[in-house]
Write a structure and sequence with these properties.
Layout: H1 11-28, H2 35-54, H3 58-67, H4 76-83
Helix pairs in contact: 1-2, 2-3, 2-4
Length: 85
């Protein structure tokens, strides 16, 4: 069983696609996409939200910055979603 879906793209294209989709999800709260992409996006988004809830040290902040596109790299949007604001 595969650990992740390839989504018919190269690794760099897939990484960019998922990063953009997660950013759109966190900004808008909802996106329209295929089921396969949604399942991959859910893995990433749930991990980011769990990190935002814990927010123990700088490591989580650096990880959030790496996984969310530059316009939201400060991680504020992730924390707003968790806090319900």
């Amino acid at each position: 069983m595969a650990k992740y879906r390839k989504l018919g793209r190269t690794s760099s294209q897939r990484k960019a696609l998922l990063r953009n989709q997660v950013t759109a999800l966190l900004n808008n709260g909802k996106i329209v996409t295929t089921e396969a992409k949604a399942k991959e996006i859910r893995k990433i988004a749930e991990g980011l939200i769990a990190m935002a809830v814990r927010e123990k040290d700088n490591f989580e902040e650096v990880t959030v910055k790496a996984k969310v596109a530059r316009k939201d790299k400060d991680g504020k949007r992730v924390k707003e979603v968790v806090d319900g604001k």
